[in-house]
Design a protein that fits this description.
It is a single chain. This protein starts with a helix and ends with a helix. It is an all-alpha fold. The protein has 7 helices and no strands. The longest helix has about 35 residues.
């Protein structure tokens, strides 16, 4: 009985810890859906050319989202007319190319991890774009 109570308590704790991220993600997604027009999103991220991907990465890095918010936002962007590859680049950038993450990595783990994060993030996005073009 103690094991079941412990498991339920751990489940509740985890749900409580991720609740804010889910609320933030769905709120931001709702704002994009309500405020941004399909034409505007199609104009902002229309294709998978390098300039569009760089713009998507910049927007993602500026959004500084948790993974829940990034997925919800990328989905909303795609449904509003953004190119799928650009939306995925936004999602990767919003979780991997944020300044706050770099600062935390530098303070807690050293400059080597920060360098790896900011070189690995763009590399993952380039690989993602290339794989989407191939498949």
């Amino acid at each position: 009985m103690a094991a079941i109570a412990h498991a339920l308590m751990m489940s509740f704790t985890m749900a409580w810890e991720i609740l804010w991220a889910l609320i933030l993600g769905f709120t931001l997604s709702a704002v994009v859906q309500a405020v941004v027009s399909k034409e505007e999103m199609s104009r902002l991220l229309p294709d998978d050319r390098p300039g569009t991907i760089i713009k998507a990465c910049g927007l993602g890095a500026a959004s500084s989202s948790c993974s829940y918010a990034a997925v919800a936002l990328a989905r909303s962007m795609f449904r509003k007319g953004a190119n799928f590859t650009a939306a995925m680049a936004f999602q990767f950038a919003s979780t991997n190319l944020v300044l706050e993450l770099g600062i935390l990595l530098a303070v807690l783990m050293g400059w080597q991890f920060t360098l790896a994060e900011f070189t690995g993030g763009p590399l993952m996005i380039v690989i993602l774009v290339l794989l989407f073009k191939v498949f």
